[in-house]
Structures are given as structure tokens and as C-alpha cells.
Amino acid sequence: MPRSALIVEVPEAEPLVHDWRAEHDWSAQHGVPAHITLLFPFMPTEKVDSSLISELHELFGSQPSLAFELARVSRFPEVAWLAPEPSEPFSSLIRLIAARYPDYPPYEGMHDDVIPHLTVAEGGPELQDRVEAALAEHLPVSARADDVVLLFEDGDGLWHEAHRFPLSG
Question: Whole domain around residue 161: which residue ranges?
């Protein structure tokens, strides 16, 4: 069943992370741009209708746009990622969405605490060391979130932008 996701696209990071993501990040290999995930998975695409789109416009339109920096390389087991600072505005958006759509908890409820991040590469400590060495001298990356993007997965497992919801600015 094709899925959807809500993300903040981070085009400012693309020049720095594109090659790493293309080789070492599943989502990049399936069409997802550099991003910070707000909610994955969200509703199956066939449940997304005009009423939901209106709700999401209203929800995100009530939230301010965000200026942030990708300030450092951090790690999860098997993932090197860039940390947005401040991270709290992203955490607030995640909590807001989760409260509004409790049937769709972030990452299907697998994590007690969802940490906002931009995945660069999936792999072990050696790869993570290489990523950190290559990227650290180019940080921070200044960025701005002016909207939230709803992505749809197609029948081939590729992801495409379906809608964009402006933040209030």
C-alpha cells in the first residue's frame, strides 16, 4: 500500500550531502531530497483527500517558518546525520502532527523520543567516521524552513512531492 510522509526539505544541504546520500541513504535512492522527517509513515496515499489537505494547510499555516543551522555530524547506530540547531521547533512540529493524527505515530511508535535529523549515510562506524571527516569542516550550513512537504510513494517505491504547505513566515 503506497505510503505518505511529511518532511521539511533542506535544499541548502543538498550540495554537501548529495553524493553521500545517493550512495548510502535508502530514501535518496528512492527520490527523497535532503530533508528532516516530521512524520513517517503518514496516511496511505489513497486516504489523502481534499479535507486532509485543507487541515494540513491550516495546521502548518499556524506555525512559524524556521531559520536553523545544520551544525554538526551526529550518529545513531548505523546512521550518520546532521543535527539541526535549534532542534526544538522541529520537535514541536513533530509533536503537533502526532497529537493531531494519533493513528500515525512517528516511525510507527518505534522510538520514544524522535530526534530531528537529516540522514546523510546509513552504515557502520567506519562509514560514519568518513562522513564526519568529510563534512565537519563545511558546517554549519544555514537553512530555512518555509514549508512542509507531503510526499507520496508510488507503486514502484519511488517518492514524489504531492503537496507543499507554507509555514506562516
Answer: 4-166
